[in-house]
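In this section we walk through a basic example: taking a raw amino acid sequence and producing a predicted 3D structure, encoded as C-alpha coordinates. The instruction is simple. Fold the sequence below.
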Amino acid sequence: MATVMTWFNMGERFIPGETYYIPDPTLKGFKLNKNIRSLKRWNMTEKNFSYPEKKWRQEPIGGATVSWLREALKISWVITKNAHKILAPTLLLQAGDDHNVIPENHVSTCQKAKDCKIFSFQNEKFRDKNGLLPRHELLMDTDNTRNIIFKKGIQFMEKLGVPRKRK
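The resulting C-alpha coordinate sequence is shown next.
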Protein backbone atom coordinates (compact mmCIF):
# COMPACT_ATOMS: atom_id res chain seq x y z
CA MET A 1 0.00 0.00 0.00
CA ALA A 2 2.82 2.41 0.88
CA THR A 3 4.49 1.74 -2.48
CA VAL A 4 1.30 2.41 -4.39
CA MET A 5 0.72 5.61 -2.43
CA THR A 6 4.21 6.86 -3.32
CA TRP A 7 3.46 6.21 -7.01
CA PHE A 8 0.61 8.70 -6.63
CA ASN A 9 2.84 11.35 -4.97
CA MET A 10 1.40 10.65 -1.53
CA GLY A 11 4.71 9.69 0.09
CA GLU A 12 4.96 12.80 2.23
CA ARG A 13 1.60 12.18 3.87
CA PHE A 14 1.50 10.74 7.35
CA ILE A 15 0.38 7.16 7.70
CA PRO A 16 -3.11 6.78 9.20
CA GLY A 17 -3.19 7.82 12.84
CA GLU A 18 0.00 9.90 12.62
CA THR A 19 0.35 13.67 12.50
CA TYR A 20 2.79 16.50 13.17
CA TYR A 21 4.42 16.38 16.56
CA ILE A 22 2.96 18.84 19.04
CA PRO A 23 5.15 19.23 22.13
CA ASP A 24 3.33 18.70 25.41
CA PRO A 25 5.71 19.51 28.26
CA THR A 26 3.16 18.53 30.90
CA LEU A 27 3.01 15.54 33.21
CA LYS A 28 0.02 14.33 31.19
CA GLY A 29 2.15 14.50 28.00
CA PHE A 30 4.88 12.49 29.71
CA LYS A 31 2.43 9.81 30.85
CA LEU A 32 1.03 9.49 27.31
CA ASN A 33 4.44 9.16 25.62
CA LYS A 34 5.60 5.67 24.67
CA ASN A 35 9.26 6.38 23.96
CA ILE A 36 10.94 7.93 27.01
CA ARG A 37 10.79 6.68 30.59
CA SER A 38 12.85 9.42 32.27
CA LEU A 39 10.74 12.42 33.30
CA LYS A 40 13.88 14.56 33.53
CA ARG A 41 14.95 13.79 29.96
CA TRP A 42 11.34 14.06 28.72
CA ASN A 43 11.14 17.57 30.17
CA MET A 44 14.46 18.53 28.58
CA THR A 45 13.34 17.28 25.17
CA GLU A 46 9.91 18.86 25.33
CA LYS A 47 11.40 22.17 26.48
CA ASN A 48 13.76 22.17 23.49
CA PHE A 49 10.96 21.37 21.06
CA SER A 50 8.64 23.93 22.69
CA TYR A 51 11.26 26.68 22.40
CA PRO A 52 9.33 29.94 21.95
CA GLU A 53 11.58 31.32 19.21
CA LYS A 54 11.16 28.15 17.14
CA LYS A 55 14.89 27.75 16.52
CA TRP A 56 14.27 24.15 15.50
CA ARG A 57 11.23 24.69 13.29
CA GLN A 58 11.82 21.39 11.43
CA GLU A 59 12.32 19.29 14.53
CA PRO A 60 10.62 17.06 15.31
CA ILE A 61 8.50 16.41 12.25
CA GLY A 62 6.11 14.00 13.86
CA GLY A 63 4.80 10.58 12.96
CA ALA A 64 5.90 8.32 10.16
CA THR A 65 5.19 9.30 6.58
CA VAL A 66 4.19 6.89 3.84
CA SER A 67 7.67 7.19 2.27
CA TRP A 68 9.37 6.57 5.60
CA LEU A 69 7.22 3.49 6.20
CA ARG A 70 7.94 2.19 2.70
CA GLU A 71 11.71 2.58 3.15
CA ALA A 72 11.65 1.09 6.67
CA LEU A 73 9.75 -1.97 5.46
CA LYS A 74 12.04 -2.34 2.47
CA ILE A 75 15.27 -2.18 4.48
CA SER A 76 13.84 -4.45 7.19
CA TRP A 77 13.07 -7.06 4.54
CA VAL A 78 16.56 -6.72 3.00
CA ILE A 79 18.27 -7.07 6.39
CA THR A 80 16.15 -10.07 7.40
CA LYS A 81 16.68 -11.82 4.06
CA ASN A 82 20.43 -11.17 4.09
CA ALA A 83 21.15 -11.50 7.82
CA HIS A 84 23.43 -14.49 7.13
CA LYS A 85 25.71 -12.09 5.18
CA ILE A 86 26.25 -9.81 8.20
CA LEU A 87 29.85 -10.54 9.11
CA ALA A 88 30.60 -7.55 11.32
CA PRO A 89 30.24 -8.20 15.04
CA THR A 90 26.97 -6.65 16.14
CA LEU A 91 25.54 -5.64 19.50
CA LEU A 92 21.80 -5.08 19.46
CA LEU A 93 20.17 -3.37 22.44
CA GLN A 94 16.46 -4.01 23.02
CA ALA A 95 14.16 -1.85 25.07
CA GLY A 96 11.90 -3.70 27.46
CA ASP A 97 8.73 -1.85 26.46
CA ASP A 98 9.10 -0.80 22.83
CA HIS A 99 6.00 0.13 20.86
CA ASN A 100 7.98 0.85 17.68
CA VAL A 101 9.74 -2.42 16.89
CA ILE A 102 9.03 -6.15 17.02
CA PRO A 103 11.70 -7.74 19.25
CA GLU A 104 11.06 -11.25 17.89
CA ASN A 105 12.36 -10.07 14.52
CA HIS A 106 15.58 -8.96 16.22
CA VAL A 107 16.10 -12.44 17.61
CA SER A 108 15.54 -14.31 14.36
CA THR A 109 17.70 -11.87 12.39
CA CYS A 110 20.48 -11.89 14.97
CA GLN A 111 20.53 -15.70 15.03
CA LYS A 112 21.24 -15.73 11.28
CA ALA A 113 24.12 -13.23 11.50
CA LYS A 114 27.68 -14.46 12.04
CA ASP A 115 28.42 -12.69 15.33
CA CYS A 116 25.39 -10.94 16.77
CA LYS A 117 24.62 -10.47 20.45
CA ILE A 118 21.40 -9.10 21.89
CA PHE A 119 21.17 -7.36 25.23
CA SER A 120 17.57 -6.96 26.28
CA PHE A 121 16.08 -4.70 28.92
CA GLN A 122 12.98 -6.93 29.08
CA ASN A 123 14.02 -8.48 32.38
CA GLU A 124 12.00 -7.58 35.48
CA LYS A 125 15.12 -6.18 37.19
CA PHE A 126 15.07 -3.23 34.77
CA ARG A 127 11.67 -1.96 35.96
CA ASP A 128 11.69 1.47 37.57
CA LYS A 129 9.86 2.48 40.76
CA ASN A 130 6.65 2.89 38.71
CA GLY A 131 6.95 -0.64 37.29
CA LEU A 132 7.95 0.55 33.80
CA LEU A 133 10.57 -1.09 31.62
CA PRO A 134 12.93 0.96 29.43
CA ARG A 135 11.30 2.29 26.28
CA HIS A 136 12.28 2.86 22.65
CA GLU A 137 14.62 5.81 23.29
CA LEU A 138 17.14 3.90 25.39
CA LEU A 139 19.67 6.73 25.58
CA MET A 140 16.92 9.01 26.90
CA ASP A 141 16.21 6.58 29.74
CA THR A 142 17.29 6.70 33.37
CA ASP A 143 20.93 7.04 34.33
CA ASN A 144 20.98 3.38 35.41
CA THR A 145 19.91 2.19 31.93
CA ARG A 146 22.31 4.56 30.20
CA ASN A 147 25.18 3.39 32.41
CA ILE A 148 24.46 -0.22 31.44
CA ILE A 149 24.38 0.74 27.76
CA PHE A 150 27.72 2.54 27.98
CA LYS A 151 29.27 -0.35 29.92
CA LYS A 152 27.99 -2.92 27.40
CA GLY A 153 29.17 -0.72 24.51
CA ILE A 154 32.66 -0.35 25.97
CA GLN A 155 32.91 -4.10 26.67
CA PHE A 156 31.78 -4.83 23.12
CA MET A 157 34.36 -2.48 21.60
CA GLU A 158 37.13 -3.85 23.82
CA LYS A 159 36.32 -7.38 22.60
CA LEU A 160 36.77 -6.04 19.07
CA GLY A 161 40.19 -4.75 20.04
CA VAL A 162 39.30 -1.08 20.16
CA PRO A 163 41.62 0.38 22.80
CA ARG A 164 40.00 2.22 25.68
CA LYS A 165 41.44 5.68 26.10
CA ARG A 166 42.26 6.29 29.73
CA LYS A 167 43.19 9.54 31.41
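Looking at the output, two observations stand out. The chain has six helices and two strands. Residues 21-60+82-159 form one domain. In the next section we compare this with other chains.
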